[in-house]
Write a structure and sequence with these properties.
It is found in: Chromosome. Helix content is 59%, strand content 3%. With 974 residues, the protein is mainly α. Among the domains are: 239 residues, Leucine-rich Repeat Variant, CATH 1.25.10; 144 residues; 44 residues, no CATH class; 144 residues, no CATH class; 97 residues, no CATH class.
Length: 974
Amino acid sequence: KMTGESDLSIKEAFQRAQKGHNNKAKLVASLKNTYNKLEDKTLFHEEFIQYLKHAMIVYKREPAVENVIEFVSRFSTSFHTPSAEGGEEEDEEEDENPFLSYMFNFLLESHKANSHAVRFRVCQLINKLLGSMAENAQIDDDLFDGIHQAMLVRVTDKFPNVRIQASLAMARLQEPQNHQCPTVNAYLLILENDSNPEVRRAVLSCIAPSSLTLPKILKRTRDVKESVRKLAYQVLSDKVHIRALSIAQRVSLLQQGLHDAVVQVRLLPAWLNLLQGDVLELLHKLDVENCSQTALDTLTALFTHTPQDQLLHHRLQLDDRMLVPAGSLSCESVLYWRALCEFVKTKGDEGEEMLEKLLPEAATFAEYLYGYMKCVPVLSEEQKGDFAQLELVMTKEFISQQLIHLTGCLDTNEEGGRKRVVAVLQEMLVLPQTPPSLVSLLTEKLLTLIPDDHRRIQTVAEVISEVREPIVIRQPLDENENRRKQVKLAEVKVGILEAKQALEECISNQEFNRAAELKDSITDLENLRNNILQEENTQQDDKETETRIEKTDPETLLRCLTMCVELLKQMNIKTRIGPTMSAILSSLILPSISNAQPAVRNMAVVCLGTCALHSKDLVNTHLVLLLQIAQLDEAKIRISALRSVIDLLLLYGFTLLSERPSPAPQTSHSPANQEDQEKGEEPEEGSSTAQSILMMLSDFLDSEVSELRTETAEGLAKLMYSGRISSAKLLSRLVLLWYNPVTEDDTRLRHCLGVFFQLYARESRAHQECVEECFLPTLQTLLNAPATSPLAEVDVTNVAELLVELTRPSSLIKPGDTQEVCVHDYLAVRVCGEMLKDPSAPEVRLYAKVLNSLELSADGNTTRDLVTLLQQVTQVHYTGTVLTTTPGDPVTTPGDPVTTPGDPVTTPGDPVTTPGDPVTTPGDPVTTSGDPVTTSYTGTVLTTTPGDPVTTSYTGTVLTTTQHLVTLLQHNTW
């Protein structure tokens, strides 16, 4: 039995180290004892390295080899003793550990070895040696620089495992506070550019967070590999304090992490631990006013991982009425209250019991909400310039908004409580101090409590009437005020008489300038007299009067239109436009269309478009107006009008348009837009209304306003997917728009079209036929694009591959009979015909690749026809150099000899001739009687005369085809 103090040979130590069950510490102690007894340690060093080399040439992570590497690292660092303070001991450090220095020097000499196994083991050993050294270990500066330079080279090694070990080895060499540190810069470069995810993970695990490295670590939370994202969140939760992150960074991390299925919820517990478990403090760190949805998602995630019996152990300070005192309400506490109540409500019956401990009765809460809303101040224009007051009002608005959301958690089954909540919501909508930002939410909650559409319409109409025509109480003038008015009137009359006398004197004295001034003065005094008399006539002295005054200011109109929009949203689509809604339409919505304020016009357009969804008559009456707005108004309003038009077309289709005259909207009439686009449910080609709308939409795809362009593309995608239109030209426009570099930054457009293409093509055979029809026009547009066009940058091959994949028969959701002719068969004919049109065109090579990737049907007749077609495409007459021939086998097409039978075998370099023709030179075309030369060809001769073998290969030749094949291709028939 080996003891720690017994002598041990190097060979025996290495043999025992390979076995995992051996105690490494005892092995190290035994071999160290042997080493210490030697006076000359040179032979020991050399022998030790010799045995180590056997392990270093093994690349595979064999357990025996890993055990040896572990043993070597332990033994090499076992000579190091922690240094005490003092310069002398530091100077002696190098002499006290010559073996470690020898080991490092050997590894540094070996790191450039040709064998990737040796390079891997060198980096692994350096990593383990540095990792096994004590925290206060010191090494020579030259040795440090040598290790540093070697590892900087190895992090660029072509083998990922070598780069991983080199990255790990540099962990103790980095200087986080030094922005010029080569290690830190190397780490940043690897994180940004290394293609191997395991290398990026290795760097993430050892990089030290700092102001320089933190942005790169944050970027890895959006890495394409799940494992890297998970580690990035782990590093942030373990090494980065929440205070080191900006509010925007905290919110971004939570938004990404909570919606990433593979990222476990580790960051939140870590942050809560740093904040002593204070959830409200965590919310404060997130600025909930500006990112309420992220805060709600965060709280939901916390509640999900909280045991149900601990959910009510909250930090809310509820009073005896089960309410948070108004003085204690803050943005964080009210959002926590709302999130907890909404989460508990999802728990069914058990949740209903828990809600009773979180919320009061409906009527009590309604009064509480009304009391708080009445206290929200209304700022004047001057006060709005005071940031402190503005911030206070915004905070109160946010709290009010969360309290309104809480009404959705109330128990409104009891009739009295529900009626009180409805009444309070109505009163708040009428209150002048109710912020405009809350009108939409208040209306939504109000209508949720009213199940019947007719009652909803009546309720909203009443509220609108109260807001637009509030009751104004006129007070009678008191005696003193009346007396003052009489005195004022007498003074004005006297002034008029005096001015008239002075005017007569000026005229008689011929002072005409003075006379003109007096005349103006008399006019002003008479106007003032008339105003005073009019006030006296309208004044009712006996009693107070109640008068309704119609308000037409933009704020009032916008408030009323917002309520209309919410009403129309919640109305059933089958509910028709009755008298009440018609009155609102004529008195509020239509007059607001021409309002000077863009916000009012925009809301009115939304209302009009939504109303039209409930009535075909409104479509016929106001469609022209919506089309004009879509072309002539501001961008935001145009987009709203466009959405309305798209929605109407989706609901009613183009058949409705055939019943009305053409609106002839203003559009550009470029040749590219003169499209014959009606199929399916569209009216006949003569319908100018449908044509005009489609031309307008086509124009919008070229708009410089990205939002309008995106909305148009999305609308066309919906119309095509729903079958309302089927147009290969419009589909081609969408494909080109998707690939156009101009839309590179338009994420919504790219995502929408990317999803649409896949769903559209997989839906039906008819859709695939539409894609097939747009194949050649799309490619030709790209191939013919001028160099100055953005389309010139598009990879045409990639576009072709996409369209081929979209038309693949196997990708259909419901594949048809595999024996019938499929879309790819038709596409093959089109491509062959295009190749035969211009044999010398550069795109012929692209078309050949397309043919090779098609998925053709198993139909026998179709296959034979395609084989015949392809044979005709590949049969050749050519002038060039004969590379190989077989005696007696002429290279011909059926009936058209190039050489005559019996001619001697030509040798390389001899020209090919036809009987009686002079010898042609390489590159001259050879044609046969009646067969036009249609294309050029580079490759191998595939066919000769029937029954003859393939006899030659050639370069630079001319294809021919027969007239019946040209006819076949022109008519696209089999």
